Amino acid sequence: MIKVRVASRVPVAEDIIGLDLVHADGEALPPFSAGAHVDLFLGNGMTRQYSLCNDPADQSRYRIAVLREPSSRGGSAFVHDALLKGAVLTISPPRNLFALDEDGHEHRLFAGGVGVTPILAMAYRLHALGARFILHYCARSRSRAAFLEELAAAPFAASVRLSFDDEPDTRLDLDAVLAAPSPDRRIYVCGPGGFMAFVTEGAAARGWTSGQIRREHFAAEVAPTDQNRPFDLVIASSGQVVGVAADQTAAQALEAAGVFVPLSCEQGVCGTCLTPVIEGEVEHRDAFQTDAEKAAGLAFTPCCSRARGQRLVIDL
């Protein structure tokens, strides 16, 4: 774990603040790659993941941007209300679940709202590599688009395209920007669920393959719970059987039984709790695994996923 201090805090758009985090002891921070994030261990007991959005070549700081969510479960509200300049907190080292394919010939970057955070770091990295790319940044309005001044002054400003819902002449035209999906082109997309679906489904309809599309979700889709059924988890190493009630997650049942499972987002996004499955069929509800990984059924996220049948045998 790394102890950091909030070196600066500035508004970067309506309801979005940008925080620069530096090592609390003045030491160098571990390097990070474009698309990486860190876990913030908040003073209210919560853990939240935020993408690093500064140039990966700048190792003096980690910069994050946080939107105050109207329906916050406590994470974004705590950041906005409590993480003032000078505050000290603990974070994880960077890890990357949304990495650039630097061998790609050409890249299409799509950011929706605060989803620009990992995309911005990617743009800096691609520019440093001399790679061809276009960054499409979409937001409800200019006031809700973060880092507009920085994008305008960036060395890759000519590669940025802006689209705003309240400016019809700037609307994103998928027919134009997703034409010619040659095998060496890549798509990266981050933003709200509706925006993600618009881009990824639009790309698929125009001939882009799943292997060409990389995405990072803010949260998994919320699955209906009214038809949840109880099931058993069998821990292969001990034979212990843990019952999961219809109104419990598998993680909650394991915790109640004294079985430790590492948790972070608790929404099926970060992959922290990913657990190997030895036997049984999984009802996957996460946004972390690929479709192919889900089809293989070799792991599940106990924070949100469940068994399709009466039991799962897991490797813990």
Automatic annotation (TrEMBL):
Keyword Metal-binding included in the entry's annotation: yes
Record's keyword terms, sorted: 2Fe-2S, Flavoprotein, Iron, Iron-sulfur, Metal-binding, Oxidoreductase
One Pfam family named in its UniProt record: Fer2
InterPro entries: 2Fe-2S_ferredoxin-like_sf, 2Fe-2S_ferredoxin-type, 2Fe2S_fd_BS, Beta-grasp_dom_sf, FAD-bd_FR_type, FNR_nucleotide-bd, MRET, Riboflavin_synthase-like_b-brl
Residues in FAD-binding FR-type domain copies: 1-101
Domain 2Fe-2S ferredoxin-type as annotated: residue spans: 231-316
Gene3D superfamilies: 3.10.20.30, Nucleotide-binding domain of ferredoxin-NADP reductase (FNR) module (3.40.50.80), Translation factors (2.40.30.10)
Keyword Ribonucleoprotein: no
PANTHER family xref list: CARNITINE MONOOXYGENASE REDUCTASE SUBUNIT, NADH OXIDOREDUCTASE HCR
Designated name of the protein: Oxidoreductase
Native source organism of the sequence: Caulobacter segnis
